[in-house]
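Hi team,

As requested, here is the filled-out complex form for the phosphoenolpyruvate run. I kept the field names the same as last time so the parser does not choke. Let me know if anything looks off before we queue the next batch.

— J.
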Amino acid sequence: MPKKLAAGNWKMNGLRQALDEVRALHDACPDARCDIVICPPATLIGPMVEVSNDMQIEVGGQDCHANTSGAHTGDISAPMLADSGASYVILGHSERRASYGETDAQVRAKTTSAWNADLTAIVCIGETLEQWEAGQTLDVVGRQLQGSTPDGATSETLVIAYEPVWAIGTGKTPTLEEIGAVHGFIRDALVKRFGEEGQAMRIVYGGSMNPKNASDIAGIPNVDGGLVGGASLKASDFCHIVKALD
Ligand code: PEP
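And here is what came back:
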């Protein structure tokens, strides 16, 4: 079974003072057995790497450009993230797909760029409420999975985050059975495409994961961790989730 991953997505939250939460997380869960990564805003990546230097906490970006450098005002490249000390990057988050019209092909190109910079890509896929209600979840997830991930993925370079869009930040989640069915479907698709590596790849769940539901979600077959937004901002909440994944 893959080692579980607790990934925090801070989104556009956090000034320098928020680094205290990283110290607090380390103090609260010093011996975590799962991998922990926090993806703060780009401004905090370097400072967070310094703070977490001797901790078991890795740092990631929330997006990267597909190119390594050039005339792309406001963007950040994968080598820049790596240069700042990041080791992961979230790609294709539904907020970026919705706000910036990111397509599967763009996410796939960004993933290749992330790999070239030795970053592990956390590629997000998931259906909207409309698609969920229309019973299209597996079609959407299958299409996004195929389109957003390059060939040659390994369990070291790729993490898949299943994030139903309607569950993000809403306090709603699918039932445990429903999460299990989608994760099982993703596992089968990964094994079909990547063979043994697909068996070892981590599939994490994201969408209103919190200290109360984390243990139940962590116990579902083929759930290898969580991508956590709101509940990753406070060390006390995130530590509960880390412990549930241990
Ligand atoms: C997310 O943004 O990836 C996420 C899962 O958010 P939340 O945990 O707040 O629903």
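Two things worth flagging: The pocket of phosphoenolpyruvate is lined by residues 9, 163, 168-169, 206-209, 227-231 (CB under 6 Å). The radius of gyration is 17 Å.

Thanks,
J.
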